[in-house]
Amino acid sequence: MAGVLAQYLPPAALQLAYLIAGILFIQGLRDMTHPRTATRGNQISAAGMFLAVVVTALWFDILSPLILGAGLLVGGGIGVWLAVTVETTEMPQLVGLFNGFGGGASALVAGAELIDVLAVGDSLTIGLTATAAIAGIIGSVTFWGSLVAAGKLHGLVGDSPVSTNVGHAIKVLFLGAAVVAGLVLVIQPDALGNAPMASWVPSYWVLVAAASILGIFLVVPIGGADMPVVIALLNSYSGLAAATTGFVLGNTALIIAGTLVGASGLILTVIMCESMNRSLTNVLFGGLGGDDGDS
Amino acid sequence: MATELSAFVTNLTLFVLAAFVGYEIITKIPTNLHTPLMSGANAISGITLLGSVVVAGAGENTLATALGFLAVVMATINVVGGYLVSHFMLDQFRGGGN
Fold first, then answer.
1. Where in chain B are the domains?
2. Do B81 and A83 touch (CB under 8 A)?
3. What tens digit of pLDDT does each residue of A101-154 get?
4. Is-contact A48 A24, C-beta < 8 A?
5. Residues in chain A closer than 8 A to B77 (CB atoms)
């Protein structure tokens, strides 16, 4: 059983639609780098997204169309409301907030896919668990890091740039915890074959929890004036999280669009640092250990 | 296993090529376009909505559907809000710049 489109079109049609969406994203991004074509570029990119979402929703078997429709309506409503009511000066923090939601969604999708695969009785492959672990870590860091960054710009989170050894140790500790939880997730299915859900689900959520704390501690010590750069970097992360989720689901549109944002976002971050005469390391880790060479 | 591996390599190919494209398209960009471009790219990263749609619609497991629903809401906020805010930002530049 498949969705409406899949009943009438060959499987290649889905890939073709994703290719067209990918081309629209690339052209849109390129147009957005020039003042004259920027507005058009944003619209081209939006058209690509609309195409990709509609084709996906009509292609796959949607057992619960009401739930999906409700999610799209609620999310779309909140998105429009936030975008329309925001003050011009508050736009940067709103972009940060949106970005966090995207990263968080990637982490949730990877977790839900693990549950789904076991629910239909398939066994977890190393490829699936490894990519889910990476998507979980990057997505969670992006979600919480973006919330802190947006909170700082909005004056909700205290802004006192500090760089301490204890702070660096905490980051390393929680990064280590997330990686260990990820390794447990990867090794377990292989050792136990089709392991019962209870034996691996906790490792994914331990990973998400550790990465969430890491995301908070990464952004809290950075000064408010550097938040635009931090949000640009986290935007690159949310692209990578989407790309990794694409590996989890075997979805080429996610891989192409996510990687595109991951790479272009990173370059944009470096350009933004350069325009402030700072290096990325200097922004991220403050004076401590931040030599002015490039990272 | 063999088809799985070749599918992975195909995906890896897309990943590497898209990374180069993403790197190359951002070359010279005026400072006042930094924030709109970041916002526009952020909207594209909401592409994870496709994954959310698939997972939320699969309905094999209540917990997975609930997580999928939450993911759809979050990703849709990212996509719809992201494109709209970018549009408003660019509108202002046009009004103020000329």
1. 29-97
2. yes
3. 999 999 999 999 888 888 777 777 888 888 999 999 999 999 999 999 999 988
4. yes
5. 75-76, 78-79, 82, 98, 101
